């Protein structure tokens, strides 16, 4: 499902390699791919448009985490938005016994099959004793089908092939279920090729008679947007409490699942993933989002990075300082890290011999200016400060709004720092720190 999206995104996101901050410009291609993939998966155009706008809003301006690629970070954002679109957490059925469920939907959507699957599922997971009531008065074959399912799943069955009044069947079905001590009563209603007045009227009458706790709409995912429209209409006409989305195993393009909640306003509660009675499960938006993207690992990787990034980066820097192979690029990254951490203290504390050294506001201000200067350098200049002479110095000073002497001062300070690190490496750290503080 949506393999398309995964592939296309893959190449668009590879182009983000190396960017430090996500921006509207560097995200443009990726966002275009997302939109196209959604549209070709038959997601409603309004949903696709809003989705892309939200993802953009979330991405733009984000600093890229150090231990993941920008692409991975974007995938995580897309994933989280997909989860929201699909309906956040799993939505449970009402927790009561007895529980009455009315199944509605178009002909061929999988209504009868899903009635059997749901009975089986709830008997197993929630310890219900199910009864299946056949309310399709037009197709005798549908009654036979439900009876067979009831037998296979060890359910109570009620049907009356001679009765044409749905309301009577409903009433008698309730009575039969009660007699048999069933505490889950599922009413399988008739379907049509399309929604019409008669069908809606019949469902309303049955609803008024059996007073269902849940009205579940069964929708065929293979119908894409059409399934979403059907759900919307059914909900407006009879008020549905949930959706069972069937045939998600086939080559359904996935769009139905994605637009369902936001267009129809009804949560997807279950999904059918095959013809067999156990190919059925509670609908989990997060699992579905990972499946759609086919990138579950990336999501957890980014989550982990978000939790531990500060620590990892600080340790890496401390290690570089220890080894004295620290360049201006590291210096910059360290300062940005420090800003995120809120104070210099924790970083300095990790350096050998520097416990207890205090750094105040003045130092922080100086760091902001230093950061501006380094940001005006090219990556090559940051890695090889030796290159910084003449016109380069002027360019950097202009770029960061300072004087050339300020840039020189920074370079001098940096050189001293490197020397200091080399000394610390030699074990003279404590002595030197004392000298500096004095
Ligand atoms: P109804 O007319 O709505 O009662 O639909 P049925 O329950 O008779 O199902 C119609 C067809 O869809 C049958 O051949 C079912 O086996 C098939 N079907 C139902 N659910 C699923 C599903 O989740 N996956 C697949 N692949 N087929 C399904």
TrEMBL record:
EC annotation from Swiss-Prot or TrEMBL: 3.6.5.4
Protein keywords: Cytoplasm, GTP-binding, Hydrolase, Nucleotide-binding, Ribonucleoprotein, RNA-binding, Signal recognition particle
Domain SRP54-type proteins GTP-binding: 267-280
Localization of this protein: Cytoplasm
Subunit structure: Part of the signal recognition particle protein translocation system, which is composed of SRP and FtsY.
Source species: Thalassobacterium sedimentorum
Function: Involved in targeting and insertion of nascent membrane proteins into the cytoplasmic membrane. Binds to the hydrophobic signal sequence of the ribosome-nascent chain (RNC) as it emerges from the ribosomes. The SRP-RNC complex is then targeted to the cytoplasmic membrane where it interacts with the SRP receptor FtsY.
Protein name: Signal recognition particle protein
Family: Belongs to the GTP-binding SRP family. SRP54 subfamily.
Superkingdom per UniProt: Bacteria
Keyword Acyltransferase: no
Domain notes: Composed of three domains: the N-terminal N domain, which is responsible for interactions with the ribosome, the central G domain, which binds GTP, and the C-terminal M domain, which binds the RNA and the signal sequence of the RNC.
Residues the record lists as binding GTP: 105-112, 188-192, 246-249
InterPro entries: AAA+_ATPase (IPR003593), P-loop_NTPase (IPR027417), Signal_recog_part_SRP54_M_sf (IPR036891), Signal_recog_particl_SRP54_hlx (IPR013822), Signal_recog_particle_SRP54_M (IPR004125), SRP (IPR004780), SRP54 (IPR022941), SRP54_GTPase_dom (IPR000897)
Catalyses which reaction(s): GTP + H2O = GDP + phosphate + H(+)
């Amino acid at each position: 499902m949506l393999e398309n999206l995964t592939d296309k995104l893959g190449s668009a996101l590879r182009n983000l390699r190396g960017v430090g901050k996500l921006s509207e410009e560097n995200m443009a291609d990726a966002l275009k791919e997302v939109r196209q993939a959604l549209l070709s998966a038959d997601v409603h155009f309004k949903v696709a448009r809003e989705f892309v706008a939200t993802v953009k809003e979330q991405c733009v301006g984000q600093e890229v985490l150090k231990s993941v690629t920008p692409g991975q970070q974007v995938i995580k954002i897309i994933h989280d938005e997909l989860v929201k679109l699909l309906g956040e957490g799993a939505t449970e059925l009402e927790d009561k016994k007895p529980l009455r469920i009315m199944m509605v939907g178009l002909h061929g959507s999988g209504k009868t099959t899903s009635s059997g699957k749901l009975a089986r599922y709830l008997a197993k997971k929630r310890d219900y004793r199910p009864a299946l009531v056949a309310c399709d008065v037009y197709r005798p074959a549908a009654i036979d089908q439900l009876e067979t399912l009831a037998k296979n799943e060890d359910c109570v069955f009620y049907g009356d092939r001679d009765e044409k009044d749905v309301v009577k069947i409903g009433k008698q079905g309730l009575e039969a279920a009660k007699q048999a001590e069933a505490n889950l009563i599922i009413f399988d209603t008739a379907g049509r090729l399309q929604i019409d007045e008669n069908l809606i009227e019949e469902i309303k009458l049955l609803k008024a008679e059996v007073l269902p706790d849940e009205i579940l709409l069964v929708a065929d995912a293979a119908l894409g947007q059409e399934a979403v429209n059907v759900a919307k209409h059914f909900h407006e006409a009879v008020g549905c409490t949930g959706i069972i989305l069937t045939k998600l195993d086939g080559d359904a393009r996935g769009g139905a699942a994605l637009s369902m909640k936001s267009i129809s306003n009804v949560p997807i509660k279950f999904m059918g993933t095959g013809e067999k009675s156990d190919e059925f499960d509670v609908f989990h938006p997060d699992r579905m989002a990972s499946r759609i993207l086919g990138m579950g690992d990336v999501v957890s990787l980014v989550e982990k990075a978000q939790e531990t990034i500060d620590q990892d980066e600080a340790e890496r820097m401390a290690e570089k300082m220890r080894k004295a192979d620290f360049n201006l690029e590291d210096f910059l990254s360290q300062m940005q890290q420090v800003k995120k951490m809120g104070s210099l203290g924790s970083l300095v504390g990790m350096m050998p011999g520097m416990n207890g050294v205090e750094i105040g506001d003045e130092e922080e201000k100086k760091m902001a200016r230093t950061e501006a200067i380094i940001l005006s350098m090219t990556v090559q200049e940051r890695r090889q400060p030796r290159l910084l002479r003449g016109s380069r110095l002027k360019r950097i000073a202009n770029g960061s709004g300072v004087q050339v002497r300020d840039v020189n001062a920074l370079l001098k300070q940096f050189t001293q720092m490197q020397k200091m690190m080399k000394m610390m490496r030699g074990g003279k750290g404590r002595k030197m720190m004392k000298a500096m503080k004095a």
